[in-house]
Write a structure and sequence with these properties.
CATH class of the largest domain: Mainly Alpha
CATH architecture of the largest domain: Orthogonal Bundle
Number of helices: 13
Radius of gyration: 21 Å
Largest sheet: none
Strand content: under 5%
Number of strands: 0
CATH topology of the largest domain: Tetracycline Repressor, domain 2
Structural class: mainly alpha
Order of helices and strands: HHHHHHHHHHHHH
Distance between the termini: 21 Å
Number of domains: 2
Shape: elongated
């Protein structure tokens, strides 16, 4: 191994740069059309060293998916507030989630690409993020709001996160379709702000609507993967190396 390769082994910034560039390439070009040669040229890291660090193209792709999922998680300090009013606390969480996703459109495109094309089939891969501060904070706020009578029962943290993320993902991934169908550019400054307000108002309206208790604990039910599906390593047994 050459001395310059050894330097790259210890250069965390170089690895971060490769992942950052790869996220952009996978999000823009898709998995099949993205080439490691292009990522190597853009990042300055040799293709051989990319293989050394990430295994193969799908190994790099999985690393990018994980990083993309991490990027759309708001920092803990943006989620918490000192308010004792559940509505204000939930509003802060909605703001934090939406605005964080707004800052990382390439991550949303990459994650949407995987949902559509199932390169790795995420239902059989270990959870990209084993738990989020978002769900924990929402659980706390929902409990406070329901105990005080401010929020109706039958709504979970997963329900709220799904609603917020659906609007954030649709803003980026449905832009061209919405322009074509209804002449609305979802990524314009005005509509970006409008979707932000829609996210906040939709969540608060859902929580405070005068609707009879359905008897359900939530709209969505979290499916827990069994132990065999928790390991992402098994995916490599059936994958053919692309490059």
């Amino acid at each position: 191994m050459h001395d310059d390769d050894l330097t790259l082994l210890d250069d965390t910034t170089s690895l971060d740069s490769v992942v950052d560039i790869a996220i952009g390439q996978f999000a823009e070009q898709g998995f099949q059309e993205t080439r490691l040669e292009t990522i190597a040229k853009m990042s300055g890291m040799s293709k051989r060293m990319i293989h050394y660090h990430f295994g193969d193209k799908k190994g790099l792709y999985l690393r990018c998916l994980t990083e993309a999922a991490l990027r759309i998680q708001p920092p803990a300090e943006e989620l918490h507030s000192d308010t004792l009013v559940p509505v204000e606390g939930v509003t802060r969480v909605v703001d934090a989630v939406y605005l964080t996703m707004l800052r990382h459109p390439e991550s949303l495109r990459l994650l949407q690409h995987e949902c559509l094309h199932r390169v790795l089939n995420l239902t059989g891969v270990a959870t990209l993020i084993p738990g989020t501060q978002v769900l924990l904070q929402l659980d706390k706020l929902l409990m406070q709001g329901q105990d005080s009578g401010a929020f109706r029962p039958g709504i979970s943290a997963e329900d709220i996160f799904f609603l917020i993320s659906s609007l954030a993902f649709a803003r980026v991934n449905n832009r061209d379709l919405m322009v074509n169908l209804i002449d609305v550019d979802t990524c314009s400054e005005d509509n970006t702000d409008g979707l932000h307000r829609m996210a906040v108002d939709s969540v608060l309206a859902l929580l405070t609507a005068n609707i009879a208790d359905s008897g359900h604990d939530s709209y969505l039910t979290a499916d827990r993967m069994d132990e065999d599906s928790q390991s992402g390593l098994g995916i490599y047994d059936e994958l053919t190396e692309q490059e």
